[in-house]
Design brief:
The structure holds 2 protein chains of 2 kinds. Chain A is an alpha/beta fold. Chain A has a 6-stranded mixed beta sheet with strand order 5-6-7-3-8-9, sandwiched between helices. Chain A has a 4-stranded antiparallel beta sheet with strand order 11-12-10-13. Chain A starts with a strand and ends with a helix. In chain A, helix 6 (161-176) links the parallel strand 6 (149-153) and strand 7 (180-185). Chain A has 11 helices and 13 strands. Chain A folds into 2 domains: 3-215, Rossmann fold (3-Layer(aba) Sandwich), CATH 3.40.50; 219-282, YebC, transcriptional regulation domain (Alpha-Beta Plaits, 2-Layer Sandwich). Chain B is an all-alpha fold. Chain B has one domain (2-263). Helices cover 71% and strands 0% of the residues of chain B. Chain B contains 11 helices and no strands. In chain B, helix 4 packs across helix 9 and helix 8 (155-178) packs across helix 9. The chains are: A alpha/beta, B mainly alpha. Chain A binds chain B through residues 48, 51-55, 69-71, 73-74, 78-80, 84-89, 93, 96-98, 100-103, 141, and chain B through 3, 6-7, 10-11, 14-16, 91, 95-97, 99-107, 110, 263-266. The complex binds adenosine-5'-diphosphate (ADP) and magnesium ion.
C-alpha cells in the first residue's frame, strides 16, 4: 500500500500556545483515517497546515511523496471547520468557482449535486440553505474534482440526528469507492463507525495511532453469574483471565486477547459450573479513549 | 491569467453592490460634462450681466483643455471603484472564502493576481469610458473643431489610468491589512487628509519630501488645471518624475500585499 500523506515532526506555535507538537503520522491509500481529539487538541490546525492555509512553525509533510503546493491541493477535496461558500451565490455558481480553481470539468457539478441530494435546490442561494444542506454542499464541493483524498473536519458538527446519519452514510459510501478519507472529529462513535484507522491527539500531542479493528478486537471482558458458589475459585485459576472483579454477585472477567465469552463458558462448564448470566462487554473505543486521556494526565 | 480573472468576475458579477457602485460611477462620469454645459448655458441665459461675454466660450470642455480638466475632476470619483475593490476583498475575509480558495488549489499569488486583474479591468474600463466621454464631449462642444488639437494632452488619460490603478491597489493593501470593509473605507477616506495635514506641519527643509508621500504622488499625476482660467501658471503636462514615484509605490504596494498574505495564517 502506498503512502498518501506523511507528516514528520510537525509543530505549530501560536505565541505561547503549542497547538501541534512534534506530530508524525502516515496515512496510506484507501484508509479512512480518523483524527480524534477533544476540542482544542489541534485537529483543525494540523489540517490547516496540511492544506497550506496555516504556516507551520517547524517540521515537514508530503502529499503523495511530493512537497506541498497548489498542484497537490487540486487533487484533494477538503473542508475545514465549517462549509465555506459565497452566500449570495447559488450552489451551482459556487461549484463553478471551485471547478474553475481545481481545473475540474463543469459536467461534474450536476453529478455531485445529485449525489448529495441538492440537485433540486441548485439554483437557490447558499445563504438560504439549512446547516445540513451546507454540509452536504461542502461534501459535493470536495468530491467535485474526483479527488484522491478527502479531508473532512467535524462534518457532522451541529447537525440533528437525521443530518448526522445522512452525512455518515455519505462518507461510508464514498469510502467504499476506495477514496482515502481523513476525518477529524471529537466524537468517538463517529470515528468508530466510519474509520478504518485513527489517531488520538491531545493538546497537540499524538497519544495513539493504529487501526480501529485492532482496538475493537482488543480485549474483551465478560460478566458472569452462577448459582454455584465455587465459581470464584474456578475463575481465579483460569489462565486466560487477566483480571477478575466482583460486583454485587456478578464477576467481570477480563480475558486475554483472542479469548471470548464462549471459551469462558466452555471452561466453566468443564469444571461443572453452569452460568445463569453471561454478557460480553467489549471495551468500547470510548472507554479506551478516556483511559488514554486519563493516562496522559497522570504521565 | 484569463482563468483567474474569470474566477474573480464570477464572484463579483453576481454581487449587487458591484453593479450599484459601477452604475453610480458611470452615471456620474456621464453627467458631469452634461451638467457643466447646462450650467454654462444657464449662465448664458442670465447673460446680461456678462456684458456680451459668452460663457460658452470658456474652453473648459474644448479640445485640448478638456483632457486635463475632465481627468482631474474624474479622479475624485475613484473612491467608488476603490469601494468595489475593498468590498470584493473584505468579503473574501469575512466569508473566509480566501481560505477555501487556497484549500481548493489557488496559490496565494494566484489569489493576488486574480484581484489585480480585476483592478486592471476596472481601471482600463473606466479609462476607456472617460476617453470616450471626453472625445464625445469635446467633439460636441469645441466650437472650431481642429483634428490636430483633439489628442493634445491625451497623456492625461494615461495618467488617469495609472492614478486609478495605483489607488485601487492601495485600497487592496489597506483591506489586506485591516480586513473589515467599513473600517478600511473609513481609513482610506481619512488617509488623504491625514497625509496633507502631515505635509502642512513638515519643517521648511523637509517640505520637499511631501511629494513623495503615496497619495501626494498619485495626485501629482494630474495637477489642478482650472487656475489657468484666472490666468495663473499651471502644470499642463504629466511629470515623468511623478509617474516614476507612482510606479515605485505600485511595486511596493504589491510586494507588501504579497508579504502580508504569505506570512499570515488564513
Ligand atoms: N489563530 C489562532 N491563534 C491562537 N491560538 C489558536 C489559533 N487557532 C487555534 N489556536 C489554538 O490552538 C489550539 C488548537 O486549536 P484547533 O486546531 O482549532 O483544535 P481542534 O480543531 O482540535 O478543536 C487551541 O488551543 C486553540 O485555542
Ligand atoms: Mg477544529
Amino acid at each position: 500500500m502506498d503512502t498518501v500523506l506523511k507528516i514528520d515532526n510537525l509543530t505549530k506555535q501560536y505565541g505561547r500556545i503549542t497547538a501541534v507538537k512534534n506530530l508524525s503520522l502516515e496515512v496510506k491509500r484507501g484508509n479512512v483515517f480518523g483524527i480524534l481529539g477533544p476540542n482544542g487538541s489541534g485537529k483543525t490546525t494540523t489540517l490547516g497546515i496540511l492544506l497550506d492555509v496555516i504556516n507551520k512553525t517547524s517540521g515537514s509533510f508530503s502529499w503523495f511523496g511530493q512537497p506541498p503546493g497548489k498542484g497537490v491541493r487540486k487533487k484533494i477535496g477538503a473542508i475545514l471547520e465549517t462549509p465555506i461558500f459565497y452566500p449570495y451565490l447559488s450552489a451551482t455558481k459556487n461549484l463553478e468557482i471551485v471547478a474553475e480553481i481545481k481545473g475540474a470539468p463543469k459536467e461534474n457539478i450536476d453529478q455531485v449535486l445529485k449525489k448529495v441530494e441538492l440537485y433540486e435546490r441548485r439554483f437557490d442561494k447558499f445563504r438560504t440553505y439549512s446547516l445540513g444542506m451546507k454540509q452536504r454542499l461542502s461534501i459535493a464541493s470536495a468530491l467535485l474534482c474526483d479527488p484522491e483524498v478527502m479531508i473532512l473536519d467535524e462534518p457532522t458538527n451541529g447537525l440533528d440526528p437525521q443530518g448526522i446519519a445522512e452525512i455518515r452514510e455519505l462518507i461510508k459510501q464514498i469510502a467504499k469507492e476506495g477514496k482515502t478519507i481523513i476525518l477529524a472529529s471529537h466524537l468517538l462513535d463517529e470515528v468508530q463507525k466510519v474509520c478504518t484507522h485513527f489517531c488520538v491527539l491531545k493538546r497537540g500531542t499524538l497519544l495513539y495511532s493504529g487501526s480501529v479493528d485492532e482496538v475493537n478486537k482488543g480485549v474483551e471482558s465478560v460478566e458472569v453469574m452462577s448459582d454455584t458458589p465455587e465459581i470464584r475459585e474456578v475463575l481465579e485459576v483460569y489462565n486466560k483471565a487477566t483480571k477478575i472483579v466482583e460486583e454485587s454477585g456478578k464477576f467481570v472477567v477480563t480475558l486475554v486477547e483472542d479469548t471470548h465469552a464462549s471459551d469462558l463458558n466452555a471452561y466453566l462448564f468443564s469444571k461443572g459450573i453452569t452460568v445463569s448470566h453471561l454478557l460480553t462487554q467489549r471495551k468500547s473505543l470510548e472507554k479506551q479513549f478516556l483511559e488514554l486521556l486519563a493516562e496522559s494526565d497522570n504521565a | 491569467m484569463l482563468r483567474l480573472l474569470r474566477i474573480d468576475l464570477k464572484k463579483l458579477t453576481n454581487y449587487r453592490a458591484f453593479w450599484v457602485l459601477n452604475i453610480m460611477y458611470g452615471l456620474l462620469i456621464f453627467s458631469i460634462p452634461v451638467s457643466v454645459m447646462e450650467f454654462l448655458k444657464w449662465l448664458k441665459v442670465k447673460g446680461a450681466e456678462f456684458e456680451g461675454f459668452d460663457p460658452m466660450r470658456i474652453p473648459v470642455l474644448h479640445f485640448p483643455d478638456i483632457w486635463q480638466n475632465i481627468t482631474y475632476v474624474y479622479t475624485f470619483l475613484k473612491i467608488f471603484l476603490a469601494i468595489v475593490v475593498i468590498i470584493s476583498i473584505s468579503n473574501e475575509y469575512s466569508y473566509k472564502t480566501i481560505r477555501q480558495n487556497i484549500i481548493d488549489g489557488m496559490s496565494r499569488i494566484d489569489f493576488i493576481k486574480s484581484k489585480l486583474f480585476t483592478i486592471l479591468l476596472l481601471s482600463l474600463g473606466s479609462t476607456l469610458f472617460v476617453f470616450v466621454t471626453g472625445l464625445l464631449t469635446g467633439v460636441i462642444y469645441t466650437p472650431e473643431l481642429d483634428f490636430a488639437d483633439t489628442f493634445i494632452g491625451i497623456e492625461f488619460v494615461f495618467a488617469y489610468f495609472l492614478d486609478l490603478f495605483t489607488y485601487m491597489v492601495f485600497a487592496f493593501l489597506l483591506t489586506v491589512l485591516l480586513k473589515r470593509s467599513a473600517l478600511t473605507i473609513f481609513i482610506l477616506l481619512l488617509y488623504t487628509p491625514i497625509e496633507y495635514a502631515i505635509s502642512a506641519y513638515l519643517p521648511e527643509s523637509f517640505v520637499f519630501i511631501a511629494e513623495y508621500f503615496p497619495l501626494h504622488a498619485i495626485n501629482n499625476l494630474i495637477e489642478f488645471p482650472f487656475a489657468k482660467y484666472w490666468f495663473q501658471e499651471i502644470q499642463d503636462f504629466v511629470s515623468m518624475s511623478a509617474v516614476g514615484v507612482v510606479v515605485g509605490y505600485l511595486l511596493i504596494f504589491i510586494y507588501a500585499i504579497h508579504y502580508k498574505l504569505k506570512t499570515s495564517d488564513l
